[in-house]
């Protein structure tokens, strides 16, 4: 399968928001903590504000059908010796999983991070069986397991 990865821009906000909402529906089993309208509005706001910390990648097949989305935030930390990338959402259409799409998305994100001077990429994975499969994929792609992430709502 021929896969094209592109850095998304403001004109891609609709597609990015639709695909991220698909991810949320899958992760939360139809009970997403945010509505599709909220995802749409937030995505458009981040692109419209041209926030340099926010990036998104889209993966397409040879017919320009969307296969995957990844959103990445630039963060800073002492442990990272400065700037690094945090993959905040990553979704590959279930029909196209295990076909090299995820690997290409990770490779493109890594190249983008190197260009931006990031020291590493980090991400979180879901729990349960989905999380185990995801962790195994990321370990094969060179990530290290550095422990769980916790969240406190503000």
Characterise the protein shown here.
The chain is of the alpha+beta class and about 150 residues long. It has a single domain, classed as Aminopeptidase (3-Layer(aba) Sandwich). Helix content is about 35%, strand content about 25%. It contains 4 helices and 5 strands. The chain has a 5-stranded mixed beta sheet, with helices on both faces. Helix 3 links the parallel strand 4 (about 80-90) and strand 5. Helix 1 crosses helix 2 (about 35-50). It is globular and about 40 Å long. The model has no long low-confidence stretch (mean pLDDT about 95).
Give the SSE map.
Blueprint: E1 4-7, H1 13-27, H2 36-48, E2 54-60, E3 66-77, E4 82-92, H3 101-115, E5 121-123, H4 128-140
Parallel strand pairs: 4-5
Antiparallel strand pairs: 1-2, 2-3, 3-4
Helix pairs in contact: 1-2
CATH superfamily: Gcn5-related N-acetyltransferase (GNAT)
Question: Which overall shape is indicated by the principal axes computed on the Cα atoms?
Answer: globular
Helix content: 25-40%
Can you list the strand order of the major beta sheet? 1-2-3-4-5
Mean pLDDT: 94
Q: Bin the strand percentage.
A: 15-25%
| Structure class | alpha+beta
Biggest sheet record: 5 strands, mixed
Give, in order, the helices and strands. Answer: EHHEEEHEH
Q: What is the domain total for the residues?
A: 1
CATH topology: Aminopeptidase
Oligomer type: single chain
Low-confidence stretches: none
**Total of helices:** 4
């Amino acid at each position: 399968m021929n896969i094209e990865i592109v850095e998304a821009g403001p004109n891609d906000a609709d597609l990015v928001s639709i695909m991220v909402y698909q991810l949320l529906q899958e992760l939360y089993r139809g009970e997403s903590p945010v509505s599709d309208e909220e995802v749409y509005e937030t995505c458009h706001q981040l692109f419209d504000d041209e926030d340099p910390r926010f990036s998104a990648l889209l993966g397409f097949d040879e017919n320009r059908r969307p296969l995957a989305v990844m959103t990445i935030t630039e963060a800073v930390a002492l442990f990272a010796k400065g700037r690094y990338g945090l993959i905040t959402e990553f979704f590959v259409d279930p029909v196209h999983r295990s076909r090299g799409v995820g690997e290409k998305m990770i490779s493109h994100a890594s190249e983008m991070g190197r260009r931006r001077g990031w020291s590493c990429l980090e991400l979180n994975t879901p729990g349960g069986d989905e999380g185990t499969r995801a962790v195994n994929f990321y370990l094969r792609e060179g990530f290290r397991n550095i422990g769980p992430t916790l969240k406190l709502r503000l």
